[in-house]
Amino acid sequence: MRLNQLGWNSFFDEHFAPLREQGLEPARVAIQHPGLYTLYTEQGERLAHMAGKFRHTVRDPGEYPAVGDWVAAIIRPESEQSTVVTVLPRQTRFSRKVAGEETKEQIIAANVETLFIVSSLNREFNPRRTERFLLLARESGAQPVIVLSKADLAEDLTAYLEEVRGVVGDAPIHAISSARDEGLEQLRPYLGENRTVAVVGSSGVGKSTLINRLIGEDRQAVREIREYDDKGRHTTTHRELIVLPQGGLIMDTPGMSEVALWEGTQGIQESFEDIDAIAENCRFRDCRHKTEPGCAVLEALKSQAISKGRYESYLKLQDELEALEKKQQEREWKQEGRRTRFNRSLRAKKAKKK
After folding, report:
1. How far apart are CA 220 and CA 131, in angstroms?
2. pTM of the predicted model, to two decimals?
3. Is 169 helix (H, G, I), strand (E, B) or coil?
4. Cα–Cα distance between 262 and 223 in angstroms, integer?
5. Are the CB atoms for 181 and 132 separated by under 8 Å?
6. Which of 155, 156, 196, 203 fits a 20 to 30 Å CA distance from 243?
């Protein structure tokens, strides 16, 4: 494989230059296994483990290699296993807070130019969830593209499109049916040599089926939707970067039942430009748009210039982001406290030896 086939560009080449002088080779993470990685290299696929020195310097889970990352590695053609020495800086990073109560970042996709946010047009249709995915996508630095799957099941496609447009603003929207091979040509311009696309969405919305159609073969496991409730059944269990026969790469990801924010200030501003523009006319600069007098947002809600659902989603995301920032700050304080206590203990031991 040539590096440019795998998404290599001048950004990564610049950051890799000093590592090349150390005899290391560039590789891209294709699959993350427990304790191992499948890498794409110029010499083909290689299994690799993480160097112990690098593992011990990692301070946050988000610093570990993720699918899509470029890494500097020791490639051993004669051996079954190579070694990941370090991770190169990321151009884009699509991430969320890990599911549950832990305040940690989970990298879903690294170094992708485009994110296909897939939502199915059946009983699973959820514009608020699409709104969340879009917010994370805009925070990542990648281009978000809304893919409305299972269009053959939509009773009123025009109504669906209007509802989604009210949520996603100027993001591109494409309605497709993988079952009937309809609308897929709309997606091909996003694919191509030296480009990487990640496919994200909830479980059962048709991500793997879509990827199979774009690849041209049934590579990803899929299962039919349940007839009694239209729900697709989750099949993808890990993230995987796939080289497309026509050039470029596409990443399959497991369905996400929880779309928790990790970062979101910029994403909220871009996703709710209409509400932010209205908020400029609020009487108070620090207006929270809840009960304050002279709130332009509340007036717009009253006049139905903005919908109740969009207003409530805006407040909920703002509150969630504030709570997350507080937890992140508390976590940093605890980590700093542990480092301080460790350094004091180390200095005390050295002083005793003297």
Report:
1. 27
2. 0.76
3. coil
4. 31
5. no
6. 203
